Amino acid sequence: MTDRQSSEPAATTLGTRLKSLQHDLFRSSLHDERTAALLGSALGVTFTICFATGLYSHFAQHPPSWFLLPSRPAGLYRVTQGLHVATGLASIPLLLAKLWTVYPKLFTWPPFSSVANALERLAIFPLVAGSLFLLFTGLANINLWYPWKFNFPIAHYWAAWTTIGALIVHIGAKWSITRREIRPQRAPTANGARVHPVEVDAVTLERRRFLGAVLGTSAVVTLFTIGQTVRPLRKLALLAPRRPDTGTQGFPVNRTARAAYVVDSARSPDYRLVVTGKVSRPLTLTLDQLRALPQRTATLPIACVEGWSTSQVWTGISVRDLLTMAGARPNAAVHVVSLQPARSYRTSDLNHWQAHDPDTLLALEVNGEPLALDHGYPLRLIGPDRPGVMQTKWVTKLVVQ
Amino acid sequence: MKRQHETNPFVTWSCAVVGGAICLYGLHGLIRALDGVISRQFLQWFVGADLAHDLIVAPAACAVGVIVARLVPTSARAQVRAGLFATAIVIAIAWAPLRSYGHASAPGNTSVEPLNYATAVATVLLVVWALAGGWLVLSTLRRRANRSQVDREPRPPSLNR
Question: The pTM is what?
């Protein structure tokens, strides 16, 4: 007997044993293509929303040269980031249910049947690993929990590209099957006639119950977390790490003055706001001089990348007015610098749309009260359609560009 | 029933090229952005998430499914499984607040994790199991109504012996 002859029966035996084991372990009729296709389609939608809104958030924080974040509508970032986090959370039950449905395929033998099939199966690894990684790290991030050393935004951003690429490969491989399976099905009867779709068989009933449970769980998760950004539902935000009505002056704080090492410098009588850069009249203003300038009031949202958001009434000096006072060019952009010692988000940038939006303020007050130290006293930037981390607190310098 | 594996070669290969290029772009970005030790740690989390699912979470879910099948009557299995699934998801989502990880990251920030999350999670689980219970009651009532309707229907003459 040759080696080839001896290895073939061995492979067949292994395949037969694996199939037998699969049959014994995974008896549920829900490990089928239709359930997988329906859950996969739902995940395709949620992941696309997460990717698009995540990309918008990334570009808002790290704008490429070809992208200028608009300053209107004022609540756009609030909606996109709220959607990003809510959709990500709702995807957790969907993903785990989908992975359970297709779990038996992990033990398929032989592992691939053709080159195309091998490529398809290869792409499943970054898809599954990436999906789990993104949802887990995203969940940890909204809870300010970082049990790793890598930079979360960078890892999350690039892992999202890897995952969405693998998802596209997967969609291509499963396109025909998914199209066939997501259509309403009418089982043929023995004589070839179609039964009415209302008359469902046991498998369909079981599938409906399973999908109902999964979608119901997504709905429960959404209901008990969405209140961190949808104010009327704030009392229901029992699983959310933030409440939009809880914190100093009635709304949340992301980084406290103590954590930012500005407690002394922000309270110092030597505090000044400096307007410098490409201006014809550089300005240095004390807090009293800032208070004496014309004030503007605007209701603007503060929307954090972690998914919470809240609208407040802000009063302060319009950045546009300051630029006019300093003699800046009409299309000037502005680099905003905080009192914080060198660390992430110490500075932010206003493109020319944002800098010249009348509601982009250097706020001195919120809801009629002087800003609390944790909200950026003496002066904070607040502008329409900006991520919370770009609403720089404890502002001390504007560099006009 | 085993279905024949269908593919649309144009869609498959177009998506493979486009998706593969995007996937490689992401990998390239990761390699460039994360260096040395950090990238090794990233890889551990990336691969570890997959392994943790395939070796722990999925087998555990299958085992729970088998236990429920043995212990719970058929009529209540779907509701019990739904309740257990939702319970696991709720606890997973609330794990960090339950353990106060946010307080450790942002000491002195009273707006982080402002609730008593043990009570909050218990409340949500109460809602979950109330919904599962309500579903069970409704399906039991419906099943009984269907059965009594079948009993009332006249039987075919061949069966009336």
Answer: 0.90
